[in-house]
Amino acid sequence: YLTLYSPPMMDIKHFERKQLINRGDESYEGVVAVTYKKEHYAEAMTRAAARPALLLYGNIDVPLREKTPDAKKLKASFPFDAVNLDYTNSLFSKTNADIMSTHLQAIDNIVQLQQGKDRYVLFVTTRAENGQFSQVFLKELVNRIDENLAHNQDFIRAYRDAIGVRTGGQLLAYAYRKFVPIGLVKMVAQILSQNHFEIAECDSLILDRDSNRPERSLLHLAFLVTASAAPRSRNLRTLGRPSFEHERRIAPFVTKTGR
After folding, report:
1. Residues whose CB falls within 8 Å of the CB of residue 203, separated by 6 or more in sequence, listed in order
2. Which tens digits make up the pLDDT trace of 141-185?
3. For residues 202 and 209, is the Cβ–Cβ distance under 8 A?
4. 149, exposed or middle or buried, with CB in 10 Å at 0-12, 13-18, 19+?
5. CA Rg value for the chain
6. What sign has the CA pseudo-torsion 145, 147, 150, 152?
7. C-alpha span between 87 and 98 (Å, rounded)
8. Is residue 176 classed exposed, middle or buried when 0-12, 13-18 and 19+ CB atoms within 10 A define those classes?
9. CB neighbour class for 178 (10 Å; exposed up to 12, middle 13-18, buried from 19)
10. Which pairing describes strands 51-57 and 27-35: parallel, antiparallel, or unpaired?
11. Do 123 and 84 contact (CB within 8 A), yes or no?
12. Residues 6+ apart with CB under 8 A from 26
């Protein structure tokens, strides 16, 4: 189990209660955690027991693309049965001037490192209130939704029946809280597809902090991921083009989210 560490360890303790994680004499077996807060790292190191089997200090986005000793330890721990990327900020912030978000790049790197795993769970959490995401990123999500509306019949039927609007841009304008989960699930499906995985099941939940200003909402996404083989092209139109076959499981999610 790979997770972003915070001292309460609520996720680790939850999975222990569900008998999905074993606690040994000194640590939680098979649990790898990364924390970017020095005080959290120091607190964990003082624990005589019940700490992650491997705890690394730093931003998880960084060691996934480096060759430091800690990066080698992290990469050597793959693949995992479950990965929990509980980001407390935005996947692609409006203040991000880069062409690629490090959080999204980390997801892509993690999926690549999961090669050889036939089945695993991926959790992703991001700030989701309106105004959090870069306009460039929102436009990219619009384009990806529109791609499905042009090519994926299951997606088209679910989208039109449950939502009614005809384009990704209309969904962004009129139903932001439906647009973000659907757009992000579509993007994750494509990341998985490039690495020979697909979504078997997915779900989402938006949690609002409270009614006080400023608004703060967290979007939680959960994916059951399975290995897959890309279907062979059967006609000239699909030869050499990306397949939308891996995204067929998105349609029930679109129906649920839309309604």
Report:
1. 221, 222, 253, 256
2. 999 999 888 888 888 888 888 888 789 999 999 999 999 999 999
3. no
4. middle
5. 19
6. negative
7. 18
8. middle
9. buried
10. parallel
11. yes
12. 48, 49, 51
